[in-house]
Amino acid sequence: MIYDPCLLAERANALRRRDLLMLNRARLGHTGGDFSVADILTTLYLAVLRVDPLRPDWQERDRLTLSKGHASGMLYNVLAEVGFFPVEELATFAQPGSRLNGHPSNVKLPGVETSTGPLGHGLPVAVGAALGAKMDGAAWRTFVITGDGELQEGSNWEAAMAAGHFRLDNLVWIVDRNGLQQGAATEQTIRLEPLADKMRAFGWAVREVDGHDHAALLDLFRSLPFEPGKPNGIIAHTHKGKGVSFIQDRPEWHHHHRPLSDEELAAALAELGAGGWGPGIGGEEADVRRQTSGVGEQQAGVTHHVSRFTQTLPDLGLRIHSSGDCRDAFAAALEALARADPRVVAVCNDSVSSSKLAGFAKAFPERLVNVGIAEQNMIGVAAGLANAGKLPFVCAASCFLTGRALEQIKADLAYSRADVKLCGMSSGVAYGELGATHHSLEDLAWTRAIADMTVIVPADLNETAQAVVAAAAFRGPVFLRLSRMPVPNVHGADYRFEIGRAACLRAGNDVALIACGTMVSRALAAADLLAEQGVQARVLNMATVRPIDRHAIIAAAQETAGIVTVEEHTTFGGLGSAVAEVVATTHPVPMRILGFPGVFAPTGSAAWLFEHFGLTPAGIRDAALELLSSLQRSTGS
What we know:
Structural class: alpha/beta
């Protein structure tokens, strides 16, 4: 650790020099924001944070999230200097195949807690991490650095409200208050002041500091927490582009908007002091190479890069063979999981009742996190809880869970590989007469399109309970899509759900009916109607929409005359599209895709809407017969 403010200032300028050379070589980056936050990052990593570069996933480490991820250049330089990766790797910044993206990725690079880039994400994640530490009574702290223009994102204020509510005095929010954003001054764009008063109004203990004064920063960090029971807010007044006269306080240098000439580069380096590009930044402080608290040396860390199926959970004995509401099976499974695994927590958006969490709340009140009507913050909090070692199940109406928080699902969960399970309740048109705002007919398309997202749509209560347990054992983000409408049991007593595997519920070689969720029982009933007319239909329950069972689809295409897909979803991008992608690229056969045909549904109950759009056993039968008839006409048979 380095506690001499003069040495810290020298280190910060040396890091600025190296960063400038790196950005200029790449002709990419954010010079202004890198330089404004340089002194803060240098002080934190060289004098404050309890981290161990040799064990980046050490559970008792302090966490720091750089929410203003565009300042990745300075973060990389600091992380390399303290030993998270070789300094020489900085030369690969933004190059093809490099681990050093223009915005930091926790999956690629040790020392990065969560992937950032889109603004307004870091504070919610930090709230979740701090909350996880509080649940465990852990001593480690959570730090997050946001920009000031970034505070125009509403998700920050959702998180700020939650932090005050949960009394997270182990959380430190640092605002890099350089006063400039991409196009102009923050106060000209959208006024932030009085910023300190706003933060205090949300329940924060707030201090202001010169963000370039290392002595003042050290004193401030030593005084944490500022007030017991209140999260800590620091407004660090800084200068964008600090240290180089022709870059400092110039909005155009938000980006490294043009390469510097040799003369400009030499002048900038001279203003920042002697030194330049080299394998390191001096050797007078050998301990900088390995920042460690010296506590818990023998503890094993948790690695991000593990098999997706390393979390083996016990057989909970959940075999539900009755008909009813799949949410009830979900609730029973979640409570059983929570009894078996202390990591399990539930996160919701004021939906304890509609998500069937009342029993969980009674049994595990300290493990239920209700963030209120704040879906973007809800996802970030869940990602932070996962970072803290928890296993979060996020419960909300699917239309709001996926629609309001889609960017958070992509960045905080999938891109960051956060081990979070999303439970989209009351999906499809379950809300019926409440109208299209409450229908969730796009969620499969949205989630299926996101890399590393697993998407499951159970058909009955037994499958729902098993899917919940399977999701918990699966390493990575999962989206469970659940209805609130009663469904009959479609599986036998010996059924065992497996992610990525379809269930053949009825044999047949004339036509294949492939369905998921509430449509599976209707497909079975349609097969009965087809049998009355001499048509033998194969019925597949495609409970996993991603990764989809390609083998079952290809077999259906090869062994039947055609395929009819049925889903309580728009016909664009959901189950039908997923099946068609396999069929078109392997064994093309005639298809019919049944669902909601890309329109906002009219007013009506779910039952009426199914009838209106032909999502009934008779409607499915008619589509299959039309397909076969069309095929006969085309072949002349």
